[in-house]
Request: fold
Amino acid sequence: MYRKFLNARSPLRLLEKGLHGGLGRGNVGVVLAGHGVGKTSFLVCVALDELLRGEHVLHVTLDQTVPHLRAFYDTVFDDLASTTHLEDQAVVRSEADRRRSLRHYSAAEFSPAKLREAVKVETEASGRPALVIVEGLDLAAAGKPEIEEIRALAQELDAEVWLSASLATERIAEVPASLRAAGDVASVVLALEPGVDSVGLRALKDHENPDVSALHVSLDPRTLLLIRS
Reply:
């Protein structure tokens, strides 16, 4: 399968439909899940979708090493290429790697200013990122002004920004009170919840839409790929 068809048939198109167009440029999205449920897998799938479109991605981690995150990308790409019989795998992987930047900061040194600096460097070096991912940021401690500053950066870049948060529970009925500030600033909030054979993806917030639609997208814990459900 050629990558343009791979993009067209991706389960992420279902996610975009369920979210009335997806997260959208200039917006912040938050994905919530219990520890080890699949936040990184989901975000890597989102990143690979952008990379296969020819876009640039900046993925910042505060709780993993860069080699570990790079290995995660390699695993998900290999599974995606294998299950879809992707044509020219080596060429596609090389092109995607050139457009992807992985960075690590300690929680103590990270700030929206550091993120802005990283974006500036990447834009000058290789191209403006259309997607920025920040994993490991303590959203409960960050406070609303810090998250609003990240949203301002998303708007300046005309890029999507995804953040993640780990919760102590695997069942997420609503945005926890401790993350209310992040939920207020974010345009989309998603919850990942383990099921019998897959990890379900559910919207807790979909922009300003009062009725949240079913997403019909899950995460396969064996392949780490998004699937239709």
